[in-house]
TrEMBL record, chain A:
It comes from the Eukaryota. Belongs to the Aux/IAA family. Aux/IAA proteins are short-lived transcriptional factors that function as repressors of early auxin response genes at low auxin concentrations. This is Auxin-responsive protein. Its main location: nucleus. It comes from Salvia divinorum. PROSITE patterns: PB1.
TrEMBL record, chain B:
GO terms for molecular function: auxin binding. One of its GO terms (cellular component) is nucleus. This is GPI-anchored mannoprotein. Pathway: Protein modification; protein ubiquitination. The lineage of its organism: Eukaryota, Viridiplantae, Streptophyta, Embryophyta, Tracheophyta. It comes from the Eukaryota. InterPro entries: COI1_F-box, F-box-like_dom_sf, F-box_dom, Leu-rich_rpt_Cys-con_subtyp, LRR_dom_sf, Transp_inhibit. The gene is TIR1.
Length: 166, 582
């Protein structure tokens, strides 16, 4: 059943889809190939005649990669919120360390069964459906795409969260 | 003779005439036919909202049920018309709210529509059924909420390609539970996520739903749920077509699609993960229209899907398909009528894909029913164009955009006059033509000589002199819309063909060589043309009269030439024959 699922195609990597099997281009080999590609020409207004929402799917993809994924971070009891770019972190431990630094607190160890037991604070997040979830349950990539905002909860409140989910 | 038939009989006969042209012809026969016809006309099409006024329309046609209208000129799509130029829907909506309490359908294209207008629509017409806003702007999701909440019998809400200020997805939740009449919903241009449960319930309670075009924010994991509630769908636009690879998601999706026996059109496909494409295979044999113009995936994946669709009539795709993919298309889709190939990287200096003139040649050769093409590429030759013209004399729309302005035939370095000349000579039914590449006055001679059925012509960076424009204006008998940018066309041709302009809907010229003096003269000569000088550099009379204007937009009108909503960068002729501005 899984034979038709081309798993390779879904591997996360940078670059355009299919860029491994590079489509042949019209480029003839030239000395310039060794240099960096030419800078985009100065754009003429309205040329080529492409409607704005169509402009460069490829550029849109790379722009998304550059624009960051900012989410608000609130901490129970703190007077104001912070904002972080979760794209900058390569995993949960990296993110949690950064939060600990930012809010000067300790979060402790995550366990699937008991969440962040024993710590004063626990990180939670609001997902796409508006539900409050404990940080750490789902794979990092899934978290990145579903996290809408972060909330650092007091340990006591969070314990209810952990037991509700397990 | 006018008394031979009772009015009721004539009215009954006229009721079989649906096309506006037929009805217009009928109304010109005699005064009594004009009177009878105007009382029983229920649909009206206004190609230029400034060609007529709401008062004139309402006075003539008291019983309208459906109004279709266009506003800004086509080049507005490419930012050539400054912001604030006009095409406001509100005056029309307000006037019609008084005059037509039974209005059912409003279709607007390239107009500025405000939330106020939408609210007025939702509250004024008790039987309102259909709202289609193509390439419109000026409204927010709050306006959509009014429509959803108040139009009890709404059948169609289609926002195709409009620019909507997306405040939130809550608007969709305003459809009351009692609303079960939806036939068509197109929200593909919106950014925000709507409440999925509200969407699901709406779909589930709309047994007549035929068209559902979702926006990018609807995740693939949830698509199967929606589709399962609407196996009667004829047109489906997916949301983002990507998800973690999971066999249960896949099989759920595949099952949902296999239940859709009526599916004819598919679109959406943002962020495609190719592994999920086979989920739609069961529907492919019935598919006649496929819009993959957001699917950034390699040619091989595109071809795998397309070759399942043997009955395909219309394909919109990105140039990732490449020449090889188009060759495969030509081999498998013999019913193809329309092809649009969009550029994935229009501003890149170098080609990023292997798509050349060859792709278009293959499809023209292989698809005997091909009649409409929009093709972006980076090289072209006369030889290819001639081959295309010979293979496919049945083109009615031929729009070619060679990305580099004034690009010559890449093989011979000559202008592409001969190639486009072959197109107009062979394709005798050609109604629409857009040209690009290096072109001299010669191509316009060919067009004036041969393109007798041509209705719309788009020209950019072409021609040598006024002779070019003169050939077109004097030769193209059926011309209705002419749009020109960055061509050395000026006063002589324009003034020599002034009368022609009254037989056309409109003429747009930007960055050409038309002087302010000529614009004034033209406006004086032709009282039924509105000559709008659109210039952001300040009053034209602060410069020499011989100075070229930035843009001029000329259109015939029976309304006042002093439109009330004129912005401060537009100049038209005043009553006392001088160009004034408000």
């Amino acid at each position: 059943m899984l034979s038709h699922l081309n798993l390779e195609a879904t591997e996360l990597r940078l670059g355009l889809p299919g860029s491994d099997d590079l489509p042949s281009t019209n480029k003839r080999p030239s000395p310039e190939d060794h240099q960096t590609p030419p800078a985009p020409k100065a754009q003429i207004v309205g040329w080529p005649p492409v409607k704005s929402y169509r402009k460069s799917t490829a550029a849109a993809k790379s722009a998304e990669a550059e624009s960051g994924m900012y989410v608000k971070v609130s901490m129970d009891g703190a007077p104001y919120l912070r904002k972080i770019d979760i794209k900058l972190y390569d995993g949960y431990s990296h993110l949690l360390t950064a939060l600990e630094d930012m809010f000067k607190l300790s979060i402790g160890e995550y366990s699937e069964r008991e969440g962040y037991k024993g710590s004063e604070y626990a990180p939670a997040y609001e997902d796409k459906d508006g539900d409050l979830m404990l940080v750490g349950d789902v794979p990092w990539e899934m978290f990145m795409s579903s996290c809408k905002r972060l909330r650092i909860m007091r340990g006591a409140d969070a314990r209810g969260l952990a037991s509700a989910q397990h | 003779m006018a008394y031979s038939f009772p009015e009721e009989v004539l009215e009954h006969v006229f009721s079989f005439l649906s096309s506006p042209r037929d009805r217009n012809a009928v109304s010109l026969v005699c005064k009594s036919w004009y009177e009878i016809e105007r009382w029983c006309r229920h649909r009206i099409f206004v190609g230029n909202c400034y060609a007529v006024s709401p008062e004139i329309v309402i006075r003539r046609f008291p019983e309208l049920r459906a109004v279709e209208m266009k506003g800004k000129p086509h080049f507005a799509d490419f930012n050539l018309v400054p912001e604030g130029w006009g095409a406001y829907a509100y005056p029309w909506i307000a006037a019609m709210a008084e005059a037509y309490p039974f209005l059912e359908e409003i279709k607007l294209k390239r107009m500025v529509v405000t939330d106020e207008s939408l609210e007025l629509i939702s509250k004024s017409y008790k039987n309102f059924k259909s709202l289609v806003l193509t390439s419109c702007e000026g409204f927010t999701t709050d306006g959509l909420a009014s429509i959803a909440a108040n139009c009890r019998h709404l059948k169609e809400l289609d926002l195709r390609e409009s620019e909507v200020e997306d405040l939130s997805g809550h608007w969709l939740s305003h459809f009351p539970d009692s609303c079960t009449s939806l036939v068509s919903l197109n929200m593909s241009c919106l950014g925000s996520e709507v409440s999925f449960s509200a969407l699901e319930r709406l779909v589930a309670r709309s047994p007549n739903l035929r068209t559902l075009r979702l926006n990018r924010a609807v995740p693939l994991e949830k698509l199967a749920n929606l589709v399962r509630h609407a196996p009667q769908l004829v047109e489906l636009g997916t949301g983002a077509y990507s998800a973690e690879i999971r066999s249960d998601t896949f099989s759920s999706l595949a099952d949902a699609f296999s239940a859709c026996k009526q599916l004819k059109a598919l679109s959406g496909f943002w962020d495609v993960v190719p592994s999920y494409l086979p989920a739609v295979y069961s529907a492919c044999s019935g598919i006649t229209s496929l819009n993959l113009s957001y699917a950034a995936i390699p040619s091989s994946d595109l071809v795998k899907l397309i070759s399942q669709c043997q009955n395909l009539q219309r394909l919109w795709v990105l140039d990732y398909i490449e020449d090889s993919g188009l060759e495969a298309l030509a081999a498998s889709c013999k019913d193809l009528q329309e092809l649009r190939v969009f550029p994935s990287d229009p501003f890149g200096a170098e080609p990023n894909v292997s798509l050349t003139e060859q792709g278009l040649v293959s499809v023209s050769e292989g698809c005997p029913k091909l009649e409409s093409v929009l093709y972006f590429c980076r090289q072209m030759s006369n030889a290819a164009l001639i081959a295309i013209a010979r293979s496919r004399p049945n083109f009615i729309r031929f729009r070619l955009c060679i990305i580099e302005p004034q690009a010559a035939d890449y093989l011979t370095l000559e202008p592409l006059d001969a190639g486009f000349g072959a197109i107009v000579e062979n394709c005798k039914e050609l109604r629409r033509l857009s040209m690009s590449g290096l072109l001299t006055d010669r191509v316009f001679k060919y067009i004036g000589t041969h393109a007798k059925k041509l209705e719309m012509l788009s020209i950019a960076f072409a021609g040598d002199s006024d002779l070019g424009l003169h050939h077109v204006l004097s030769g193209c008998d059926s011309l209705r819309k002419l749009e020109i940018r960055d061509c050395p066309f000026g006063d002589k041709a324009l003034l020599a063909n002034a009368a022609k302009l009254e037989t056309m809907r409109s003429l747009w010229m930007s960055s050409c060589s038309v002087s302010f003096g000529a614009c004034k003269l033209l406006a004086q000569k032709m009282p039924r043309l509105n000559v709008e000088v659109i210039d952001e550099r300040g009053p034209p009379d602060s410069r020499l009269e011989s100075c070229s204007v930035e843009r001029v937009y000329v259109y015939r009108t029976v309304a006042s030439r002093q439109r009330l909503d004129i912005p401060d960068f537009v100049w038209t002729l005043d009553e006392d024959s001088s160009m004034r501005y408000s």
